[in-house]
Amino acid sequence: MIYFQSAFDIPIVPALVTSIVTTAYRRRSFTLLAVLAASGLFAVAAARVRFDTDVLSLLPRTGATIPAFRRYVNTFGGVDELYVIFTAPDGRAVADYDDDVTAWTAALRAAPEIAFVDSGTADASRNFGWLADRELLLLRSEALEEALNHLTPGGLSAAVASRRELLALSAWRGGDTAAARQWLDVITNDGETPPSLRSRAEALQALLPPVAKS
Fold first, then answer.
1. What is the pLDDT of residue 7?
2. CB 105, CB 119: distance < 8 Å
3. Which of 4, 58, 142, 201 is found 20 to 30 A from 123 (Cα to Cα)?
4. In a domain, 67, yes or no
5. What is the 3-state secondary structure (H, E, C) of 13-74?
6. pTM of the prediction?
7. For residue 8, what pLDDT is reported?
8. 27 phi and psi, to 5 degrees?
9. What pLDDT is attached to residue 80?
């Protein structure tokens, strides 16, 4: 028959536990301070614990493939379709850079990380629905800030006032002074019209012929 001996069956273990308990009881203040200090250290350590739900954090941070993949995801926001658009400077046509575009396309097709490359000219035969939902990604610096500003309350008010100004000028150019006056009145009476547009509308109002009195 086999007997198993627990740790408490060893004479030295109960004596050690009794000694620890007796010492802690005798030095209660010191023990309390030690417990509080240990709790504080554990709290500081726990505050530095970070719960990361990004699966990319589980991947190695060394090598060439993983860092490149991480940069791609951080830059483009995901493993989705990527549009590369070539534009020509003023005075030149895109056709002047056919060799460069062909070389780029061949290099992309040769990349093992890319599953499919569809090249061509931006015309009605292409489906740009995916790109239309992400068109802000094509803008940079000042152009992006201006586009985002149009989505703010102040930007929307300025855009509405600007369209009203265009309608007023169009009516004036067409000889319809009544319609032009109506749009200018709407601009000046709107409390959310930017001051610069309001000043222009008031200047245009002064140039209109006076209303005929019956």
1. 47
2. yes
3. 142
4. no
5. HHHHHHHHHHHHHHCHHHHHHHHHHHHHHHHHHHHCCCCCCCHHHHCCCCCCHHHHHHHHHH
6. 0.37
7. 47
8. -110, 60
9. 63
- Distance from C-alpha of 19 to C-alpha of 13, rounded to nearest angstrom: 10
Token pair, residue 89, equals: 């400077």
The answer to whether 159 and 150 are in contact (CB under 8 A) is: yes
Query: Would 42 be classed as within a structural domain?
Result: yes
124 and 174 co-located in one domain: no
Which two structure tokens, joined as six digits, stand for 155? Answer: 């930007």
Q: Which domain holds residue 201?
A: 148-207
Q: What are the 10-residue block averages of pLDDT along the chain, 214 residues in total?
A: 48 67 76 82 76 64 69 68 79 87 89 80 66 68 78 83 90 88 90 87 86 57
Tokens of 92: 């030149």
d(CA 105, CA 68): 20
When divided into structural domains, the chain yields a total of: 3
